[in-house]
Amino acid sequence: MIGWSELRDMLRDAPDTIELIDVRTPEEYAITSMPGARNIELNQLRKRLGEIGRGKPVIIFCQVGLCGYLACRILKQSGFDNVRNLTGGFKTYAWAVEKQANPDLFDYETIRLLDAEEIDSRRNG
Fold first, then answer.
1. 21 - beta bridge partners?
2. Nearest to residue 22, comparing CAs of 49, 73, 59?
3. Which residues pair with residue 20 across a beta bridge?
4. What is Dmax (Cα atoms) for the chain?
5. How far is Cα of residue 43 from the mean position of the Cα atoms in its chain?
6. For residue 108, is it left (φ>0), alpha (ψ between -120 and 50) or beta?
7. What's the rounded Cα separation, in Å, for the pair 46 and 8?
8. What is the Cβ-side half-sphere exposure of residue 74, based on CA atoms within 13 angstroms?
9. Phi and psi (nearest 5°) for 48?
10. What is the phi/psi pair of residue 85, to 5°?
11. Within 10 A of 3 (CB to CB), how many other CB atoms are there?
């Protein structure tokens, strides 16, 4: 498994070092996905194993994690060694890394209430 913050750092610092696979439906993928992700729907994964490189770690994600877990199992059973599923899926990742229109009053990284100055700072970028 991989958490959203570790994946965020990988995508920022070294995006070419991983294979990022979105196993959601093509319709979900068309709405939004992560930069650099390729769409291989879970139902098509076994037929398309040859499209996934074995030289890099493979990061799998779906909407909330269940289909990603199943995809990881399929890949591991097919001989892929370095496969990880994004904990909480795309929903958790997007909520955590995308700028929110209304900033939270709470800092989830350090578990504390933000003061007014910090809230204004986040609101203004």
1. 38, 60
2. 59
3. 59
4. 53
5. 19
6. alpha
7. 27
8. 19
9. -115, 20
10. -105, 135
11. 15
| Side-chain half-sphere CA neighbours of 113 within 13 A | 2
Confidence of residue 111 (pLDDT cuts 50, 70, 90): low
Q: What is the mean pLDDT of the chain?
A: 89
**Do residues 54 and 75 touch, judged by C-beta distance below 8 A?**
no
Structure tokens at 104: 């939270």
Predicted local distance difference test score (pLDDT) of residue 110: 66
Question: How, if at all, do strands 112-113 and 106-107 pair?
Answer: antiparallel
More confident site: 17 or 113: 17
Phi, psi of 49 (to 5 degrees): -55, -35
